[in-house]
From TrEMBL:
Sections of the chain in a coiled coil: none
Name of the protein: VOC family protein
PANTHER family: CONSERVED PROTEIN, GLYOXALASE-RELATED
Domain of life, source organism: Bacteria
Alphabetical list of InterPro entries matching this protein: Anthracycline_SecMetBiosynth, Glyas_Bleomycin-R_OHBP_Dase, Glyas_Fos-R_dOase_dom, VOC_core
Amino acid sequence: MPCWIEVQLSDVEAGRRFYGELFGWSFEPAREGVLWASRKGASVAALAPKGDGRMPTVWTVYFAAPDLGALLGRIRGSGGQVITGPSPVGPGSGTGRPLGVMALAADPEGAVFGLWQAGTHAGFARRHEPGTFTWAELYTRDTGAANDFYAHLFHDALFGPGAAPDFGRAAVDEVFPPEMPPHFLVHFGVADVAKALATVHRLGGRTQVNPFTTSYGTVAVATDNQGASFALLER
């Protein structure tokens, strides 16, 4: 299941101001210029500096991987690719132990996602409420092929008991122009989409897709003041 999210930014301090006001987050240093965001004292996300200015400014969703090596093997065997990793991250503050092991991968259509094998950091300490991760939607050109690929990786998340409370799939052209590349879109819970969009605009972001109704709530897509896309979800 999704267990963590991280945004890659050119200006982490600008990100701190934007997301701190939008979602009521507080921040603390984590590692190597990375800030951990918390809401009500519980960790909810990370803001990371881009190591290379050519890297995209994006939110990445990480899926929990109890056996990262085996999962990477299944990704390659199913037509996906491993982009980076596996790489240890950390160590955690004062423990000497790694926070975990991470990798980035892409499905056969090129949608990028992260994988996280937990060490001292298991992932979200709070979710499914305003100001926190609430949903990840995969926008893909071939939903049938996506179902086959991700079922091979994350069967329980798609088809197990209480399946898919955090993760869904839709065709790109249901929301975006057909030329939009396949991608994951991180959704944050909000109490009022219209008010949240007004705050986004005031902070220098913009609306990418106006509010629309889905089976899981009212959604709008926005970009922050550095161009990272995310969704706002009112349930």
